[in-house]
Amino acid sequence: MLENLRLRRYDTEQAQQLVDQLVDVYLDAHSGDGPLYNAERYQQQLAVHMPRVGWELVAATIDAELVGYIYGFPLASDTRWWDGVQEPVPAGFTKEDGRRTFAVSELLVRRGWQRRGIARALHDELVGSRREERVTLLVRPDNTAARNAYRTWGWQSVAKLRPDWENAPTFMVLVRMRDRHSPRGAE
Fold this sequence. Notes:
Shape: globular
Helix content: 10-25%
CATH architecture: 3-Layer(aba) Sandwich
Distance between the termini: 17 Å
Mean pLDDT: 92
CATH class: Alpha Beta
Number of domains: 1
Number of strands: 7
Strand order of the largest sheet: 1-2-3-4-5-7-6
Radius of gyration: 16 Å
Strand content: 25-35%
Number of helices: 5
Low-confidence stretches: 181-187
CATH superfamily: Gcn5-related N-acetyltransferase (GNAT)
Largest sheet: 7 strands, mixed
CATH topology: Aminopeptidase
């Protein structure tokens, strides 16, 4: 672990001051990933996600530079998160109540800081503190490094999903169940 790595939690109001920096990290982390990963679309995503009840961000800084972050929110009963699931899933799998599932929307680290344990530290800080029964996220099938990391961190692939937005890729749906033996949740 990096000695000077600092993790800090933010709620929506506190994170508003970071939006430009969040976009910069997003663009850096997705450099070369194609036209879907642009500032305008991501600003719109943040504008939709940040006001959600329970939205939370954990930021990683090194010497006051934002080098990465993770954010997510609990899935409400009227969530559209599961829209586009392509494979059969067990009955009730997509039923939400605001307390069952926490969705990790982004886990990003600037390219120059990747492969140093920052993503794992961010992941463990946010996911390890959740009280929901399970946590979910979407990952592109061609993102082998992320898929391998998630697998070693206890995530399982359960389906595929293609969101209903223009030029959306097909994602793998990963789920991690809360460890009921740990007082903090999944460790």
